[in-house]
Amino acid sequence: MRRGVKIVAVAASAVMALSAAGCGGKKATTGGGGGGDGKKTLKVGLAYDVGGRGDKSFNDAAYAGLQKVQQELKLDVKDLEAKEGESDNDKIQRLELLAKSGYNPVVAVGFVYATALGKVAPKYPNTKFAIVDDNTIQQPNVTDLLFAEQEGSYLVGAAAAKKSQTGNIGFVGGVQTPLIKKFEAGYVAGAKKINPKIKIQIKYISQPPDFSGFKDPAKGKTIAQGMYDQGADVVYVAAGLSGSGSLEAAASAKKWFIGVDSDQWQTASAAEKPYVLTSMLKRVDTAVFNFVKSVGDGTVQKGDLRFSLKNDGIDYATSNPSALGDMTTTLNDLKQQIISGKITPPEK
Amino acid sequence: MIHRLFARSWTRTLVAAFVALVFSIAITSIVLSISGFNPPSTFQAMFEFGKEPDSIVNTLNKAAGYYLSALAVAVGFRMNLFNIGVDGQYRLAAMLAAAAGGAWSLPPVLHQLVIIIVAVLVGGLWAAVPALLKVTRGVSEVISTIMLNFIATGIIAYLLNPGRLAVQLGPNNIGTKTISRSGRVPGTPFPGTDLKLYSLLVIAILAGIGFWFMINRTRFGFDLRATGLSQSAAVASGVDARRMVVMAMVISGAIAGLIGMPQLLGESYTYSLNFPTGIGLTGIGIALLGRNGPVGIAFASLLWAFLDVSSQILDFNDIPKEIVAITQAAVLLSVVVVYEVVSRVGQRIDQRHVAAQLGEVAA
């Protein structure tokens, strides 16, 4: 009988592992309505990275881009989400499902789709595809959306160093991938530019291939908390959904938080807003907006589209002016120097 | 009649599995109805999508990994040894095998063999750590294997860096050096789709046959089952329990080492940031669902893979695909409970039958 109990216990833990993997809390949505008023409906497919819609960061930025297009064009949006740990075949099926069902264009949000897109794009030559954060797939119907995250991170690094009174700031990365290391490198360089002696605490929530660091608010909170406890007074969090936990920690410690990808001051609660110093804006929304619009106009560009400070594809948020104060002068000056090429923030 | 049917253990298993499936469909339907979706049309959509050629290929490919994973877990379960570390074992094995395959250039056949052997060795050795800890220091394998999963993640993260075992595969992706053509296993075409079946599905089938043979037809398998049923009795009859623990763990780890092979040699050719994770943990559930037998596990892994694959269509219909996780969890929990119930009912029928026969004799 004891054996039976043991088995039930193991079964229960397996179920817990399952439910942990399955928690995403995605709400069902109603798709766009059918046409009728003469305007052509553009069917747009969106395939998300792990985390999906509702991360208030990377994936949401892509969706925001579509919402902007929706004001000008009639869209029928279908957005599908990746499962953690899935294989390339799952991604191939997801992209194919969209292309096959007539969604055109299809946007793959995240470099994890690269291999899958390389197999699907040639099969649907009339469908326009875009992929965010990758340019390994060079096909006539693929647009690569690339971002200079290090530039924006440089600016918020400078902002952190300016704001810090303790001379101690922090960086929380979601998953230690080359992509997130770009954020770190820019941030460190920007902070050192303002204060060469500044102390920077650097931590990543998870190590690849464990991608849970992008969707673990509880760990985001603990790590940020630890940094504040150790004397940091500004923490930059590049961790997708996990950042919402870090923001909570900032608000309860009454210290500064710097958001990422989307302007996180906009989505913060009233109690948290005062602690959002700024956000590094990676305008995935702009990129998606431009891309979808260009498909609508028939002016779509293939190949690499690079977004940086120069073309407003990267920026820092000024939605909390009282927190930034007069440092915007310094930041805008640095921004100009990066645009003119006088400063080149490092990528690693 | 009922007695004769129930006398066979496989009918009990079948009945239990069927009842559990019905039960989990019922639970899923309730959840769907509460969330405002129509259960029959949802299941129909899943079934329709699941029988498309693309989905069939994807299901079979996925099932291969799940099957090997569950077999690895089942080897331990058969002797009450809980190898929760299959996940770390297969990831570390796949990563080092991929690195070896990418670094060395060998003639075909030899190249594939070397990669697979590296994977089996790494998996086995990594599993030997908790086994040795258990027999020398008495550390519970449940705890040590779970912790070794995290350590494996750490080692992989350390090694998977440019300058160590990884190269840049794209602006944001890194992985081991891509295995050259001589080390790949071309996929098998499937009618109606461009997706290819992993030819190394064969490994899963062979492993299943080997598992059956080992458990049922060898001295080792007998000792394994004996130890699982009663360790003290097994020890009393001359089984070396410590040796059994080490052997079972190493075999379990070696099978775990195979999990990533169909994927690695048939599709990815590199261990990169998007190599599938978590298969080892899924295997625990599938082994339980399949009652630790090679045939049961085959059906369980196919069911599991089917549910995973067809969950895509739920997302497409704006139904949360986490519904599938509920179905999987429900089927798993109910199969454990239902099997207990069925085997008790079976026992009672047995007893009544025997009593009746005895009564006849007495009369």
TrEMBL record, chain A:
Identify the domain of life: Bacteria
Going by the UniProt record, its keywords in alphabetical order are: Cell membrane, Lipoprotein, Membrane, Signal
Subcellular localization: Cell membrane
Q: Which residues form the signal peptide?
A: 1-20
Q: Which SUPFAM superfamilies match?
A: Periplasmic binding protein-like I
Membrane topology for this entry? Lipid-anchor
Looking up Pfam families in the UniProt record yields: Bmp
Q: Which GO terms describe its cellular component?
A: plasma membrane
Q: Which InterPro entries match?
A: BMP_lipoprotein (IPR050957), Peripla_BP_I (IPR028082), PnrA-like (IPR003760)
Chain coiled-coil ranges: none
The segment(s) forming the ABC transporter substrate-binding protein PnrA-like domain are: 48-344
Q: Spell out the family assignment given in the record's similarity comment.
A: Belongs to the BMP lipoprotein family.
Q: What is this protein called?
A: BMP family ABC transporter substrate-binding protein
* Species annotation: Actinoallomurus iriomotensis
Q: Taxonomic classification, please? A: Bacteria, Bacillati, Actinomycetota, Actinomycetes, Streptosporangiales
TrEMBL record, chain B:
Topology versus the membrane: Multi-pass membrane protein
List the keywords (alphabetical): Cell membrane, Membrane, Transmembrane, Transmembrane helix
Q: Name one GO molecular function term.
A: transmembrane transporter activity
Protein localization: Cell membrane
Cellular component, GO, one term: plasma membrane
May I ask which residue range the UniProt record assigns to the signal sequence? Answer: none
**Transmembrane feature ranges:** 12-37, 64-83, 90-107, 113-133, 142-160, 197-215, 245-265, 271-290, 297-317, 323-342
Looking up InterPro entries in the UniProt record yields: ABC_transp_permease
The name on file for this protein is: ABC transporter permease
